[in-house]
Amino acid sequence: MLTDVEGRTAVKLARKTIELFLSEEKFPEPQELGFELSPVFGEKRGVFVTLTESGLLRGCIGHPFPDSRLEDAIMDSAISAATRDPRFPSVREDELDKIVVEVTILTQPEKINAPAEELPEHIEIGRHGLIVKQGYCQGLLLPQVAPEYNMDSIEFLSHTCLKAGLLPDAWLKGAEVSCFEGQIFKEKEPCGEVIKENISGE
Question: Is 4-106 assigned to CATH 3.40.50.1820?
Answer without folding.
Answer: no
